[in-house]
Amino acid sequence: MGILATLSIAAQSLKNQQVGIQTVGHNIANASTPGFSRQRVELVTEYPSFEGGVFLGQGSNVAGVQRVVDRFVEAELLTLNRDVGTAEAEHQALAAIQEVFPTTGGIDAALSAFFGALSDLANNPGGLAERVSVIGKANALGENLRQVRELLTSAQRNLDDELESITNRVNLLTEQIATLNGQINFSEASGAEANDFRDQRQTRIQELVRLTGATVREEADGQVTVVSNGLLLVSGQRAATLDSSTFNGAGFRQVTFQSPDGLTFDATTLFQTGKIGALLDMRDNHIQGIIDRLDQIAVTLVNTVNAQHALGFDLNGAAGSDFFTAIPAVAGAAAVVRMNPALASEPRLIAAASSATAVPGDNRNALALGNLRSVTHASLGNLTLQDGFLALVGDLGSQVESAQMSLDFRQSLLTQTQARRESASGVNIDEEMTKLILFQRAFEASSLLVRTADAMYGALIEMTR
Amino acid sequence: MRVTSQMLGIQVNDGLARAYQRLARAQEVVTSGRRINHLADDPIGATRAMDLRSFENAVAQYGRNIDNTSPFLRQADSVFDDVVKGLTRTKEITVQMANDVYSPVERRAAAREVRQIFEHLLSVANTKVENRFLFGGFINGTVPFTETASGVNYLGDNGEIRIQTNATSTLPINFLGNEVFQGAGVTGGQGIFDILRDLEALLNGQSAPNDMSLAVNLDDAIAAGAGFTPVDAVGTEAPAATFNGAADFSTTVTVFDSKGTGHDLTFLFAKTGATTYKYRVVANSAEITGGTPGNLYQVAPEGTLEFNPGGTLNAGASTLTDITMIGLVNGAANITVAAADLSFAGSTQLAQPSAVLTLNQTNVNGYAAQLGRIDAAIDQMLTFRAEAGARMNHAQLAGDSLEVLRLRTLGERSRIEDADVLAAYSDFARLQSAFDAALKSASQVLRPSLLDFLR
């Protein structure tokens, strides 16, 4: 009890209010920093002194600066980030190839025009104009198939290129997380929470999970372990690296995992979720599947047209040669659909007749060629060429639609959860302003207390003169 | 719930982004007029629309094909009409010329008209439509019908030019010349060109007198004998010895067949009494089929002649028989000289009668046969004409049903992929005002802060 004690309370209070104002300032300064969690000064009353039979308050003290975090929401955010990463990559890849198949004027229209031209030829088998039109339509069809396949392959290449930048990013993130693990471990040895390091680490973990689909576990010492489908990406202060500079037989990048111990192996098939997993799945399964089906359609077209054409006779009375250049293998077929150059440069060689002696009036082979429009093929699942193509397009459309829906759904979940996180951890400027005013007023009051105590001291000293 | 500035920011951004996205889609629908602009907008609808579009293309193609049949079938119809008209005129001529009142000159004039009709029908049989022969099958390099000395040859083939009228059926657009004009493969089929040529020949051949008068040598200087030995059957060869030894004299006359080809008949006479004679009619092997060249063949039973004093024929006591030549070359109709058309008169000329008289087959048979053929040919032509009509009908019906199908498909596709313009526009307007409202409210919510009130 005494003036000194009052002065001491005032001095401590001045200090406390400054800590409060600094924290408010920190919060305001980081109001728009992504991943930042607002911090709160924990003031506690000082242990009272027992004097003259009463407990006398000894002012307040700063017990610590806490970051306000909802751990459930943080964990949920990680899962959602993984899902959104997967959905985003799927949607991105599928939406890109969707535009390769326009809803009007695509391969289906080219097929239809080709068979239409053959039908016109049947109407006038001797006509040169009809023959030239068949050549034009066949070239357009080949061009269309080649172009679509080229676009699909380049979509695969784009995904492949993206894979490289993603693995570089993953390497950067794992290293940063390992470093932050060390800093957190060191800082928290004293018992205080390393608020800002944790915020930084959390944002990096979110990004890493989005890319790799990894799961995260926090150890007792505050460090996190990051594991993706059995691959230890970060353990304590050690980080694994991914490498995408080796290529598989098809010329696509493989993901090589190098553990902190230097163990190296091909981990391409181990990534199943996250952006990497989705990219690999799109590149090797979905897009490749579409390319394979397109190749099957192309090879069926070429083989059936060639077979029927060979049964006919051209305007010179010679048996029909290959209509399209023969295709050696199914793989890559759509990229090499070309009209036989000999026919393309000499319309007379199109075999519209079924008998060598009945040219040029005989239209039976042209009729049969035109009728291939409605012939079904076992190699296309007992569909016609047109329906086979439409089935392919329909499947792709459904995939894009469901990828879109899944992305929308997960994105909105993520947004809602981010809002929940903001609700708990975000900075509200108005709130901070109010706190600022409170701290400021308390500061002013504390200084008044100092002045009062000072005046009291003065009075005491005057008294003794 | 605690609301923070950043949270408001996230919500505003997210909400505006979504609203903007919806607005962009609505805008795309309004500007393109189509409900489906990307596969993912409606994968099932998009593929269905693509399917329908290619079906539309096919239907349009079938429509074009059917349009293509029309010139062929119409031309065929008009050709058949011409042929029927030509044959009808020919029939008139034939009926007219079957009367005996026309002179050879008039018949030759009629023959020239028949020739004109023949030429016209030959030219229509070689009709080209769109540079293709209508009656030549697949053959296009050679004219299908050409006339030679022996008749009209068909140089086409049996190719039916078929046109696809829908996914499963075809329609032939040409008619085969050998069926239409030559009756090939048609039950009771008639060769139209043959009829006209035969008729022309028949008309040209009608230049002989109506009946045949033969002078018989009643010269007493000829000794009466036993007549012809042996008795040969009709159609068998008459050995040279038979008449060289037994015939006292002979006369050769020429008769014309339905095609106007002359055939020589040799009458062999043998004196059997003072006023009685026997005669036989023989023809050279070249006039009948199957004979040994150089030999003569008997073409009628033996006849007897009895003359009255003064040289007239005692018809009651004589036996005259019909003369029939069958199996004539070049498909000509059989020649029959009725016994009634034969007249014999005696002559006391010392020399053997050597006049060569030409027989006129009154030959209603020739005209009647031609008339029958013409009627059959007209029937044949009418049958083909009916078929052309039926095919045109088929094409018309197929075209009509394609049109119905096309409209239905078009409607179906439009229903699937076209935007309901009113709904699309009102959607757009609604979304736009929602977007405006979102923007306004965002600006209202984000602006005020406690700071505004602390100044």
Q: Can you give a write-up of this model?
A:
- The complex is a heterodimer of chains A (465) and B (455).
- Chain A has 465 residues and is of the alpha+beta class.
- Chain A has 10 helices and 11 strands.
- In chain A, strand 5 and strand 6 form a beta hairpin.
- Chain A is rod-shaped.
- The model of chain A has no long low-confidence stretch (mean pLDDT 91).
- Chain B contains 9 helices and 16 strands.
- In chain B, strand 3 and strand 4 form a beta hairpin.
- In chain B, helix 2 packs antiparallel against helix 3.
- Chain B is rod-shaped, with a radius of gyration of 46 Å.
- About 2% of the residues of chain B have low confidence.
- The interface between A and B is large, with 67 and 58 residues.
Task: Give a topology summary.
The complex is a heterodimer of chains A (465) and B (455).
Chain A: H1 3-29, E1 39-45, E2 49-51, E3 54-56, E4 60-67, H2 71-98, H3 107-123, H4 128-187, H5 195-212, E5 215-218, E6 224-228, E7 231-235, E8 238-239, E9 241-247, E10 253-258, E11 264-266, H6 274-310, H7 341-345, H8 364-371, H9 385-425, H10 429-464
Antiparallel strand pairs in A: 1-4, 2-3, 5-6, 6-7, 7-8, 9-10, 10-11
Chain B: H1 5-32, H2 43-97, H3 104-125, E1 128-129, E2 132-133, E3 145-148, E4 151-154, E5 162-164, E6 170-172, H4 177-180, H5 192-205, E7 212-217, E8 237-238, H6 240-246, E9 249-256, E10 262-271, E11 276-284, E12 296-298, E13 303-306, E14 323-325, E15 335-337, E16 342-347, H7 364-417, H8 421-446, H9 450-454
Parallel strand pairs in B: 7-16
Antiparallel strand pairs in B: 1-2, 3-4, 5-6, 8-12, 9-10, 10-11, 11-12, 11-13, 14-15
